[in-house]
Amino acid sequence: MEWVGTTKNKYKYLRRGDLTPEAKGWYELLKRSILGTVNNSEVNKKRAIMLYCIIMGGEVKVHEIIANDIQRIAEKNSAEGWLYYPSTIMRLCMKAKVPMEDENPTWLIPGMPITIERMMMVTEAQQSRRPQRRRQRDEPMEEEESQEEEEEQEEEEQQHIPSYN
User: Fold this and answer.
1) Arithmetic mean of pLDDT, 28-49
2) Which residues contact 31 (CB under 8 A, 6 or more apart)?
């Protein structure tokens, strides 16, 4: 397994195809439940380090990672940002008795997984609140911006990565 680096000899990512079968399995769990990503071919440094900790039996404070990630996303204050951990957020809101806009939402069933079919279903109340889309061309850029933000975070974390020779 080799790191793909930058021109400045900084580690950038691992290729997913280079992972062992065990690591691929843990990576799927990691990317679907803890540190979400849509990039299936590359494992960035943050995810690679967590993957290493999981495989080696190290401590991974998932609750802190998720809480910090939710906080980071919330502070972005972007209407076009991705909503990470929607089920976790909904359960926390329900536990805190946060009032819902819809009295008895038909789209909300605790414990039921979020699927593409359920996400595409739009109620009348949601339709009336739905903002009009301005530009369709901006949509692909969202993933690019997300990738750039991840790279910036990785550069900040570079000084905290131990070298394993």
Assistant:
1) 80
2) 37, 47
